[in-house]
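Q: I'm writing a short methods note and want an example of a predicted protein-small molecule complex. Could you take the sequence and the SMILES for pyridoxal-5'-phosphate and return the bound structure as tokens? Please keep the output block clean; save any remarks for afterwards.
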Amino acid sequence: MSSRLALLGGTPVRSRPFTSWPIFGKPEEKRLLRTLRSGKWGRLDGPEVALFERRFERMHGCRHGIAVVNGTVSLRLGLLAAGIRAGDEVIVPPYTFFSTASAVIEANAVPVFADIDPGSFNLDPAAVRAAITPRTRAILPVHFAGQPADMHALLAIARRHKLIVIEDSAHAHGASYKKRPAGSLGHMGSFSFQSSKNLTAGEGGILVTNDDAIAATCRSLQNCGRVPGGLWYEHHRISGNYRLGEFQGAVLNAQLDRLKSQTKTRDRNGQYLAALLAGIPGIHPQQRTPGCTRHSYHLFMLRLDPRQFGVPRAAVLKALEAEGIPCSAGYGFSLHHQPMFRNKAFGPYLPEQSTKLDYSKTHCPVSDLICREQGIWLGQSLLLGSRSDMEQIADAFEKIFENREALVRWAGKRKPPDPSK
Ligand SMILES: Cc1ncc(COP(=O)(O)O)c(C=O)c1O
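A: Understood, no commentary inside the block.
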């Protein structure tokens, strides 16, 4: 397979598109139309969101599911309901979407970054231990890409230091750890239903928990501070309207019927692709950890070591795209390097603490290396295809490796981008 790279005028490995996302059909149409015609479009009037909450909580073996407008709000309400107070520290990974840390700030608490493990891309328990101070109140692990974090170690740390654990399960619908659903292992699990997610209604989120008191607070926070049995215009705590609408509930109920088989397909294909790629020098797919009994593969993520592979990441990504494989570099820098952290642009939050914090001193070299040089993401819908789709992805990587010298020459000849344009 030393045929010329598509980037250099050769024939692409793949010319057909991969499975597109979202996947929908008659069940979504039926529920949406029924909701439309019922005239019951709000969560307080119709059956869809309430039904979805019951189904989602059951799926997680939890007593409570509280649907909200998105997965950022679910994190924030979870932190508030857990009793996180102004200035409390919450340990988060630096390799995650902005919201994992921004929700902490919007709860008036302080995100403290602990580095990730270079194999699993999840929070490194040793780094978490090192980040604990007398002000630490919670750990917010992300099940990154859909692989559950090392919950055994993280829960042991939490027990020892009496910390709350909120699992950011935005990537982990249907994933499991030692056969237990991701999101059900800590005090709370938070999920997102934003467009790219493995379970989606365009937007949306949910919190699941077995803690009755936390659930009651979340439900009140989700509904303008109202309480059961209270009057409509009676508000017991500061909050807002974070209720999910019935159209989204309708879509989620239909999508949920598809989730189990889609998750099995993604997991099967993800493991197959990881095995196919394993022999290529410099390609390091996310390592499957022993506790992972179901990986939901929101992303297929790998590290490309440019020295071992022989080509810088940017050129590999260009070459992959040209071969017909959609891909991206993922996050460009660790969260603490975001301008928001660098400039402490925290708005009205953390007014006192913000003067003491200096995120430029945060040291997370693994996350930095993956962001700057090594991370490669393939989206979840690629894994909904056939085994031969996986073989084509692996063929593209192999073809690029075999043509690495030509690719390096091509990259060397390209003019650096003009910063004025
Ligand atoms: C890890 C992680 N946490 C939280 C969120 C926030 O979810 P939402 O976009 O629904 O607010 C996302 C969404 O992209 C995410 O990837």
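A: Remarks, as requested: The mean pLDDT is 96. Residues 146 and 297 are 5 Å apart (CA to CA).
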